[in-house]
Amino acid sequence: MTKEILSLKNIEKSYQDGQSMRTILNHVDLSVHEGEFVAIVGPSGCGKSTLLNIAGMMLSPDQGEVDLCGNNVTSLPGRKWTKIRKEEIGFIFQNHQLLPYLKAGEQLSVLLNTNRQEVEQLFRELEIENIIDQYPSKLSGGERQRVAIARAFATNARLILADEPTASLDSERGRHAVEMIQMEVHKRNKAAIMVTHDERNGGW
């Protein structure tokens, strides 16, 4: 039996919208186990990113519980959330969040203490080995996104969270990026959640 990595139970989240409250998430349950890759597909504004931020311990739910690797983390203080995020969660952000003063390979080797050989291997798998020594400003949007994917893979995180990881990629490279996430999940027994409005992902 596979181990449950993430469990969201009865999650609720609302925001103030003028004079009224707008409910974004209403009694949402989600469970992801080792080796599972879950895609949440829906239009912009339907609450996908809010759900991902709650799963990634960057946003607190109004109601409900968040369990990560068998531990209830819902009510832990912020400093413990920061530590758990760093150790257990790998993020792939839509806007990449690469540091402009580090070369592509250094986004892994300097920030994560990843050795050069592993960096080169990940870059080869993502077909970006030719940009390993280039700065983010010299890269295309798709190349920056694949560097962000490689950075998430280079962590020891049990859970990978991907926010629109194919948004800046063409169809072929988008398919390859999703396949890479799937491969990483199965290869290292991780769990992954991807949110996207790209309906192509339903066929991937």
Question: What features would you highlight for this structure?
Answer:
4-stranded antiparallel β-sheet; 32% helix; 6 helices; 204 residues; Rossmann fold; 4-stranded parallel β-sheet; alpha/beta
Write a brief structural summary.
The chain contains six helices and eight strands, in the order βββαββαβαααβαβ.
Annotate the secondary structure layout.
Elements: E1 4-17, E2 20-33, E3 37-41, H1 48-55, E4 63-68, E5 71-72, H2 78-88, E6 89-92, H3 106-112, H4 116-125, H5 141-153, E7 159-163, H6 171-187, E8 191-196
Parallel strand pairs: 3-8, 6-7, 7-8
Antiparallel strand pairs: 1-2, 1-4, 4-5
Helix pairs in contact: 5-6
Tell me what the structure shows.
The protein has helices spanning 48-55, 78-88, 106-112, 116-125, 141-153, 171-187, and strands at 4-17, 20-33, 37-41, 63-68, 71-72, 89-92, 159-163, 191-196. It has 204 residues and is an alpha/beta fold. The protein is globular, with a radius of gyration of 17 Å. It has a 4-stranded antiparallel β-sheet with strand order 2-1-4-5, with helices on one face. Strand 4 and strand 5 form a beta hairpin. The chain has one domain: Rossmann fold, CATH 3.40.50.300. The longest helix is centred in the C-terminal third of the chain and has 17 residues, at 171-187.
Give the CATH class: Alpha Beta
Gyration radius, in Å: 17 Å
Looking at the overall shape, the CATH architecture is 3-Layer(aba) Sandwich
Number of helices: 6
The shape, in one word, is globular
The side-by-side strand order for the widest beta sheet comes to 2-1-4-5
Number of strands: 8
